[in-house]
Amino acid sequence: MPTVKFEYGDETFEVTAEIGESVMMAAARNRVPGIDADCGGGCSCATCHVYAPDGAALPAPSDMEKDMLDFADALTDASRLSCQIVVTPSMDGVTYVIPKL
């Protein structure tokens, strides 16, 4: 199982993720701060906003994800909703940054 990292402020959290689950579920299951996941992964709240690393091989965000990102604070070109990112074996060691607001 891949290890996914989350940076939140000056802390880094490493979690074991299951292939096929969302990055949000891996974070929520491990109680990573800053990932509130209020909607439970339904792409309807933007409380799982992260910055994806440069060069991450992720599919383009869907129109629904783009619409929800409009509600996220501190939006950048790297912004993604972690509920929409599916864990793959190639994500081992990848670090997502959680905006600290």
UniProtKB/TrEMBL annotation:
A biological-process GO annotation: P450-containing electron transport chain
Residues in 2Fe-2S ferredoxin-type domain copies: 2-101
Single annotated GO MF: 2 iron, 2 sulfur cluster binding
Names of required cofactors: [2Fe-2S] cluster
Keyword Ribonucleoprotein among record annotations: no
GO cellular component, one term: cytosol
SUPFAM superfamilies in the cross-refs: 2Fe-2S ferredoxin-like (SSF54292)
Pfam families per the UniProt record, alphabetical: Fer2
Protein name as annotated: 2Fe-2S iron-sulfur cluster binding domain-containing protein
Source organism per UniProt: Litorivicinus lipolyticus
